[in-house]
Amino acid sequence: MADVDLEQGQLEKSATPTELAGLTQAVTDAWNPRSSIADRQLSTVTPGVAELDFGSVTDLYGDEHATVLPTQQSGTSEAHEDILLARNEKTEAQAKKDTSDADKSESYLQKASNVQKLCAKFQSEVAEALHKSQNEVTSDNVRSFAVKEQVKGDNALAASLISAYRRDDYRPFWHREKEFPYWAADNEEKMRAKADDKLLKPASPGQIDGEHIRQDYPDSCNFITSLIGLTRQPGGPDKIMRMVSEKQDGSYTVRFPGAEKPIHVGKLTEAEKLYGSTDDRGYLYVAVLEKAYGQYLNEKQPSNERTVIPADGARFGMSDDNAGLGMKLLTGHDSESFNTARSGLFANSKDDIARALSQAEAEKLIITAGIKAPPEPNPHHLHPNHAYSIEFQDGKIVLRDPLKTGKDSLIPTNIDELYNNFNVIRVEQKR
User: Fold this and answer.
1) How far is CA 54 from CA 113, 123, 176, 183, 204, in A?
2) What is the chain's percent helix, strand, coil content, to nearest 5?
3) pLDDT tens column, 275-286
4) Minimal CB count within 10 Å: which of 191, 196, 274, 350?
5) What is the CB-side half-sphere exposure of residue 144 using CA atoms within 13 A?
6) How far is CA 107 from the centre of its chain?
7) What is the C-alpha separation between 323 and 329, in angstroms, rounded?
């Protein structure tokens, strides 16, 4: 993509609203929810916003023109009508969730309205910047604004929200269009809390604690669970402290024990800080290590398959072949995988897995558990296609969900649940 300049609220108007509206309608038609992924590829330079259309396709111009969610009123609101009309296209569970969203309080709807207007203003500036530079309006080109250093403040928040919500092109249509304002309202505060993070790491290794490490928007659970596991090893926090260092220009050098050479990591943009994983006390080392991990995986992909946000390269570590790579980079050690009953053929016995877990705990090795589809019923609310860290507390097996921190992240379990609900248990191999 050619260089695109985006100045905070100072873009030159190079197309009229009418021109952009017509072109944007064509783009939106190309993203018909019933068309295939292949059919949704845009082949023309179109100065509109396909991926960011959260309301009317003609409302591209900030506060004055943005579509706003109605506040709670007597009778049926427009938002509620939209939900009811679309219900026949959704699963029963999704319909129930949407009905609940339609009944949100007035203050919540106002919050959703405000963040939608913020994103509408940003999408207007993005549309004009792409039009001015003769660049195609694609998901990647829109998301690339998250790695531009000049995108700051509310624009950085909007770029991060949109990038997080749009990170999967296969996201169902109703999630794309109807749920975004509510999703953004739910995630805005978590992102804003990271805006002022400046310190790379704590003053001493003793302050590195896995209870404070949280996976945010990149698909990096295999890496983050291993990082959490490393914090529990004797000397692990010190290893983490020595892995990352900051240069005078604000960029970083990351030295993974399992990497062939040091990795240069560019300075985190404001949007990357909001988007990336974190230590919830405000330290940046988690986001920097995650970005380095994403870059490492990106560099091993064909150039046309690399992600525009470096941390998103972590998604390539979700495959079965690469699932142990994060553990190897962080420790320099290989890992051994144990297949459970849910893996089908070639499953290890439950007794073998129990012995492996006991030995790993005795040697303080990293242990993780991977799941593809949660069981039904799902009392622990396990996530699909996700990895969890395994710990022992008072001799009992406990899962730690990297999407949460502190006590909220802990899920009590046992060998029977692990064997019947998860697909694979991965254990660090000590050299």
Assistant:
1) 11, 10, 7, 12, 45
2) 45, 10, 45
3) 999 999 999 999
4) 196
5) 20
6) 27
7) 11
Concatenated DSSP letters of 11-57: ----S-HHHHHHHHHHHHHHT-TTS-TGGG---S---S-STT--S-T
Residue 348, both tokens: 């290890």
**What pTM, to 2 d.p., does this model score?**
0.79
Reported as a single tens digit per residue, the pLDDT across 356-401 is 999 999 999 999 999 999 999 999 999 999 999 999 999 999 999 9
- Beta-carbon contacts of residue 234 (< 8 Å; ≥ 6 apart): 364
Question: What is the Cα–Cα distance from 233 to 246, expressed in whole angstroms?
Answer: 24
Sequence-ordered list of residues with C-beta below 8 angstroms from that of 263, at least 6 positions apart, any chain: 253, 254, 255, 256, 292, 295, 296
Alpha-carbon span 146 to 380, nearest angstrom: 34
Please say whether the beta carbons of 141 and 133 come within 8 A: no
Contact in structure between 54 and 116 (CB atoms under 8 Å): yes
Half-sphere exposure of 72 (CA within 13 A, CB side): 11
How far is CA 89 from each of CA 28, 68, 175, rounded to the nearest angstrom? 19, 24, 12
